[in-house]
Design a protein that fits this description.
Cytidine Deaminase, domain 2, 5 strands, globular, 7 helices
Amino acid sequence: MDNRIDKENYYLDMAEAALNRGTCLRRNYGAIIVKNDSIVSTGYTGAPRGRKNCCDIGFCRREKENISSGQRYELCRSVHAEQNAVIAAGRDKAIGGTLYLVGIEGPTPHTATDKVYNPHTDSCLMCKRVIINAGIEKVVMRVSPTEYKIVNVQDWIDNDDSMPVIS
């Protein structure tokens, strides 16, 4: 059993499977929420139900307008993977859970050999607020095929990066 995958990478692989449904032309993410060692929900980056995805219309507005990462999310067609996972779970099932998140650069699908993981994977400020309100306790983010970082959501609460520092 020396080659058995650890639980974190097992769940990150499940989140990676979810990202293969992603429709963003810029970056794709997959997320799953796990509670009591059971998968509660999954989510991936994509337009709201019934609306066309960027991959369907053939362009990303934020990319077309050369908007930097982390800016002007209101112009994005997609609902983020973390938000979709929380919506699918509902707060009552998400409380106390762990969210696993995997991000890749560019559109899906990618083969295992050409996949470029986003080593700076982190939830945006909007998703952090959703994760906090959902009651999720920690977020595990893949940074390479086998490496990950773990964030305790309480750290996001204690170190509020959404508020400007006024001196």
